[in-house]
Structures are given as structure tokens and as C-alpha cells.
């Protein structure tokens, strides 16, 4: 499947997929005409917006056959970093086979790489649960609700969003750890998600909040500084009680600093994960895979503008709550720029969601400390997706100072039921002393 520019002759085919009135309104609300469609409605709808440059209609094709359609538009002409998807539709004969997800991933990549979009939004009616599940499967999350009157009924519409730092197409991600944790991941089929407030940068979530406040104050005159502080204090009064849990990965293979920091000074192991499959597992388990943002400041983030407007426009309380809910959800995805060399990605369970999707918490008791964590059952989620669990692992690299040999690790994999991993073992080439 690929996306190409929409052509006028596509309209008749796409409009022909709409077989009843309810489906028409689920797809287009009341923006395109009445049922039954005659076939030229998309051309009529698009002609002025295309000329203005604020709308980009795209058609999904496989060979010469049209398989789907959507448009990308700019809701705010002055802010080209946010786009909105609309009129998302797949040919009826291709539904239920993952084609909607394919098309959406292509559109997300288009928005990110060609339009430099940082945020993508869309709307879906609650009476269209299959469409909503499709959007959730590629990483969209709800951020607000509204009501629309259609067919003499009140339809609830869910607005969803995606931060394009979320990741679904990276090829390999590397997890540096010790051999005991490797056993848990590969043999037991589990990976542990730790409290981000107990990791190497305990203030990283607060770093994002503080940078946001600075950016909002820059948007406003000095007279509003106290109001900014009051707004944040009131709406984040429970922030210290909120924790995100994450498992961390890096873009870098066989990296000296990662070996030293996370793999027992090179005596551990690095597991190379298939990035695409890891992302699918994360989405299915409500622990999406995100790329960490190391931005020095937050000035260009869309949420800064929204927060500034909360100060000057005095919106309804529900809008304030929705904005701060998004702020809290975004906080685990930012990290101080001094950590940029890690090139980190995270499977993240956002504040308030860990217990809902990952079950009961667990506690790791050490001689001098107690650490809380949640378990993501990687193998179970992989099998639910119909995937072979060993395919999640691209490579197992033995650390530069590890005492474990390739033969010993191969014997372990053979004995514990994962012989296919034996050919994926390699020794680190990092120039550190090996015992």
C-alpha cells in the first residue's frame, strides 16, 4: 500500500463505498452532502481548500486499485505544526484485515516527515467503535469530547490526538541490562516497568513542567506571571502523587556509555528488539512506545499556546482540566537535554493507567531499598497479535566485560526452549577490557 495525491476521478469510487445514511454521517458528519451520494461530492468539497493550501487529500492505492482515502488539513493557518485527519475510509472489501492501520501509519509518516507536524488530531463518533479501535491501535488517544446533532440525535464525538514523537517505525531498539533481567524478558516473557521518578533523573517529569511555565510566561506580559503560577499550582496540586512507569531502550547498539550505566559496567547483555513488533505490543498493552524529547525549551509546543489562552480567555473548567490532563500525560516523554546522548525510547504506562492495564504492582526489595514496578507480559501480548515471540529479538549481544561466553549462552537458550536465538548471539566489539 502507498499514498498518492488525490485525483478528481477518485471521488466516484470513494463515494460509492458509502452504503447507508448512518455510515455517511459516521464518516463525514454533515460536511459532504446527503445520502445517497452522487459521486462528485469530494471534488466539490475539496476544490476551494486545495487551492488555499490548507488541505491535502490523499488516496491509498495498491497497484492501480484504490484501497482507501483521507485528508490532512491545517486547523490553524498560523500554526503549521498541528494537522488534523478527516474523511478516513477504507474500501469495504479490505476492512478487518489491518488495511486501515496501514493507511494511517502511512499518513502519520507523511505528516511527520513531509509536513513536520508535531501533533495530529482527528475525531470519531462513539457509535463507531471499530474506527476508534483502529485509531487507538496506531497511537491516537482521546483528549476531549463534544456533542453533535445528527439524524435528529445527539451523537458523542471523541477528539483524539497523537504526538509525532511516538514511534512505530524504528527498526531496532536496544535494551541494556544484566543476565538475570534477560532471563525474565526472554525466558519468562516479561519486562518490568519502573517508576520514572526513581530512575537516573528523578526530576525529569518536573523539568518538563517547569520549562512549560517558562514558555507560557514568555507568551504573556509580566502582569500575568502570578496567574501562571496560580494556574499551574491549582491544577497540578496532585502531580507529586502521579507516577509514570516505563521500560527504556536506546537507538544505539554496542554503546560504551550504555554498557557502563545500565549493563553492570559491561558485564551484562544488550537485547536488540524488533522496533515495529515492540511498538505493536506496546499499543496493544496500553503502554505505547515513545521517542523521548530532549528539547532545550518548550516554546514551540502547541500546548504552550493553549496554556497561555487559559490565562487570558478564562475558558470553562472542563477545558482547563482537559489541557492539564494532556500536560501530565506528556510529561514522561520529555527529558533534560543533558541526557540526549542516550537517544532513548520508552514503553510508557501513563499516570493513572498502570493499575488499569498492567494488573497489581510488584515490589523489588533490596538490602537498602524497595522499588515499585509493574509487569508487561511481552510474550502474552505477542501471541495475542499472532506473532512468534522469538521474532521480537533481533540480536543478543554479550557485554564487553561479561564472563558469559557465546557457547554458554547458546546452551542456555537451547535448554530453556528458545534455540532459534542461538544464531542471534554476538560478542560486543566495544573496546573495553574483556575478562
Amount of beta strand: 25-35%
Rough shape? globular
Q: How many extended strands?
A: 17
The main β sheet shows up as: 7 strands, mixed
| Integer count of domains | 2
Q: What characteristics describe this protein?
A:
435 residues, alpha+beta, 25% strand, globular, six-stranded antiparallel beta sheet, 2 domains
Provide a concise account of the structure shown.
It is built from 15 helices and 17 strands.
List the helices and strands and how they pair.
Elements: E1 2-5, H1 10-15, H2 21-28, H3 41-52, E2 55-62, E3 65-73, E4 82-90, H4 99-113, E5 119-125, H5 129-137, E6 141-150, E7 153-163, E8 172-177, H6 179-187, E9 191-195, H7 204-219, H8 225-235, E10 245-250, H9 256-262, E11 269-274, H10 275-284, E12 289-291, H11 302-313, H12 317-330, E13 344-349, H13 354-357, E14 362-365, E15 370-376, H14 378-384, E16 393-398, H15 406-415, E17 425-427
Parallel strand pairs: 4-5, 16-17
Antiparallel strand pairs: 1-2, 2-3, 3-4, 5-7, 6-7, 8-11, 9-10, 9-15, 10-13, 11-16, 12-13, 14-15
Written account of the structure:
The chain is an alpha+beta fold. The protein has 2 domains: 2-163, Aminopeptidase, CATH 3.40.630; 172-427, no CATH class. The protein is 34% helix and 25% strand. The protein has 15 helices and 17 strands. A 7-stranded mixed beta sheet has the order 1-2-3-4-5-7-6, with helices on both faces. A 6-stranded antiparallel beta sheet has the order 12-13-10-9-15-14. It has a 4-stranded mixed beta sheet with strand order 8-11-16-17. The longest helix has 16 residues, at 204-219. The model has no long low-confidence stretch (mean pLDDT 87).
